[in-house]
Amino acid sequence: MAQNKYVEILKASTKLGLTSFGGPTAHLGYFRDEYVEKRKWLDDKAYADLVALCQFLPGPASSQVGISIGMLRGGILGGFLSWFGFTMPSVLILALFAMFISGASFDAGWIQGLKIVAVAVVAHALLGMGKSLAPDRQRIAIAVLSAAAILLVPTAWAQIGVIVVAALIGYFIYRNEKAPEAVKLALTFGRKTGIAAWTIFAGLLIGLPLLRPLIESGYYAIFDIFYRVGSIVFGGGHVVLPMLEREVVPGFMDADTFIAGYGAAQAVPGPLFTLSAYLGQLMGSGWGVIIAVFAMFLPSFLLVIGTLPFWSVIRTKPGVQAALKGVNAAVVGILLAALYDPVFVSAIQRPADFAVAIIAFAMLVYFKLAPWIVVLITAILGAAMYAFL
């Protein structure tokens, strides 16, 4: 029976990994349809609580929800299988794309199309996140000031500082609001395992950068970069863009190569964090892919394992929820800054580029086309534009 349970988890998650287009919000809809409606593995209340947990944690929310459901169904191994099935299809596609693109010329129009589509995708994500995460004047102000601060001080440490300050502001503004009640979650592991996971998470986050100057290894550098980024990114996949860009450009690749990969990542199903497979291939070939993907998602596993046993207590703390509101507003500002740099400044070089970006944006927002279709059309438009203009 246990073996059948694990096969069932892997089968369900692989199906989602092959068909879940559209970004984190769409992924959560696919998950609910598959796990709540069809398979009845949990009810709506428990699912909503898992979504709240994973929005509270840094990292890719949709992947963490999938991991959490797998853990509720089959323990820690079930969580791994749930992640593996959901993630591997896009990892393989993006690693192969990186192998292909490493021999391509960036004068090619379709590459420019991939860079342009990133403008439309980030703008679309910004609209959606702004409505849900910055719905009032206070949070709009936090978002705008966060964007201004990051544009003026474009460093990874500035982003961390902005998140910390936003958390404090959110706490003082919203601390008196009532927190929702939590749902009891049935787990196969307890608080000791959770504490151990948090200890490993913190030890790696602090220790990896300290040891990096002493260890001359490209693979160690890849692990350090992707682990740190996976540990501190709030707001999901799109917000990973500016953090990764500052870590790998220009040390490992140029901005054009980076943005082209981000555009291609919109065309594949699964989580946007699998951009790490594309970057890992360019930074360190096959082992680079394995190390980058493992390091990128390892914090998600540790944070989910560490927080699930304590979530029923954390969920009911108004101060925690208040700080999270400030953090989420800052995330909108981080994405707003990323829309300008690196996305816009790298992709839009002449009026024709901006015209294609407007078309791509309209296809996403107003005509509701699937992202992979928009990516394909934009790549074709880019190729045609550079052939005839």
Q: Could you name the key traits of this structure?
A:
mainly alpha; 16 helices; transmembrane; Chromate_transpt; transmembrane helix; Chromate efflux transporter; cell membrane
Folded structure, characterized:
- This protein has one domain.
- It is built from 16 helices and no strands.
- Helix 8 crosses helix 12.
- The radius of gyration is 20 Å and the shape is globular.
Which secondary structure elements does this structure contain, and how are they paired or packed?
Blueprint (H helix, E strand, L loop, with lengths): L1 H18 L4 H15 L5 H13 L4 H41 L7 H25 L3 H16 L3 H19 L16 H21 L6 H15 L7 H9 L6 H11 L9 H33 L3 H4 L3 H30 L3 H15 L5 H18 L1
Percent helix range? over 70%
Q: From the alpha-carbon coordinates, what is the Rg to the nearest angstrom?
A: 20 Å
**Biggest sheet, open or closed, and with what strands and sense?**
none
Q: Measure the end-to-end span.
A: 63 Å
Low-confidence region ranges: none
DSSP strand (E) fraction? under 5%
Q: How many discrete structural domains?
A: 1
Shape: globular
Query: What is the total tally of β strands?
Result: 0
Secondary structure class reads mainly alpha
Instruction: Give the overall average pLDDT.
Output: 85
Tell me the quaternary state.
single chain
Total number of helices: 16
Helices and strands, in order, run as HHHHHHHHHHHHHHHH
